[in-house]
Amino acid sequence: MQKRWVTRQDGAVRDSHSFLHAKTIQMNGKFSVGGYDASYPGEPTLPASQRYNCRCRLALIPVEG
Length: 65
What we know:
Elements lengths: L1 E5 L8 H4 L5 E3 L4 E3 L2 E3 L9 H4 L5 E5 L4
Antiparallel strand pairs: 1-2, 1-5, 3-4
C-alpha cells in the first residue's frame, strides 16, 4: 500500500496543503507540510498553522504489480 494526501480543492485549502494534493508516497514515508514532516494530515506534531482546521484526508492506494 501507498498513501496519498487529498484536499478538498476549494478556496479554503492552505497553499502548503494544496501543493500536496494527490501526492503519493510509501506508507512509511513522510509528507513535507509547509517545511514540517508529517505522516498524515492533522498529525499532532505539526504546528498549529498547519494542523488546526485542516480538512485534508489520507487515501490508501494499492501498489500495482
